[in-house]
Input
Amino acid sequence: GVLASALLLGACGSDDNAGGDSGDKIEWRFGHLADENHIWHQTAEKFAELVEENSDGQIEITLYPNNSLGGETDTINAIQSGTADMVISGETLQNWAPNAALMAVPYAFRDLDHVKSVVEGEIGDQIQSEIQDQAGLTALYYHTRAPRNLTSNQPIESPDDLSGFSMRVPNVPLFLDAWQAAGASPQVMDFNEVFTGLQQGVINGQENPVDLIQSGGLAEVQDYVNRTEHVYSWIYILVGNEQYNELSDELKEVVQNAAEEAQALGDELYESEIDNIEQELMDSGMEFVDVDQDAFREAMMPAIEASLDDEQLELYNQILDV
Ligand code: 2Q2
Output
């Protein structure tokens, strides 16, 4: 039974049991970049609670919001070396699994229905298994994401307004290429450094969905949300392969069942919360600006095609046809 296998695991006290040093309990450290009020954190709390409850306390998951366990890339490296166990990540994984870039190709996805049909179809399965093989992370559930918009302190209605505009992008080479081609001066920073970078004028802007604009408190340091809507995407909740494979079949099932419930809760929270956030950002003083999206798409397209290799381009074309 579950207790016996947990004790057995405890008895051999596998020393690569990430984070957990007491034999009979598995302790996972789960880091992510959103704040405690964010949909991702609320869903992750439910996931952790279900896993702990249904494993009779054999697996304890501690959450570290606001990048308090380190930035996204550092957390991925920590999971691979066994000092962390779970992370929320997506296109940044292209640094290990190149085809993860396809999760967030600018202007590839028409809307969230298109995203859902890809992530739940064979392209999504392929990306998920390449992340498992090449990044060493197993996806447990995912969140669909509101579109990414460019924030700034001057209205930006077309790429012509981007000259001299320094902005932060996440550690996603494809984003660096796309925004460079659009005429901006992008640089990679961890999300938890963005607020200070904007406050000190090191950068003039950044791009993110409204929920992370809110989570990062960016209304205090940015006046405009320019509706570029340049990326519709999804993001995975992932655990290290080793950490997951260490579990007995019974505990794997507990984790999978909790993931299914978390998936449903995350979808529910998205539906109920995302539309309010735009109004909340306006109430905090941000002005939403309509932009010439075709001009941004045309400006980015050459960089997208240059940045993707043949296999990625093949997948990109398959996505366009879904
Ligand atoms: O801007 C960010 O850091 C976040 O929106 C995400 O983490 C980003 O989309 C990617 O790094 C996801 O892998």
Remarks:
- Residues 1-22 have pLDDT under 50 and may be disordered.
- The chain is about 45% helix and 20% strand.
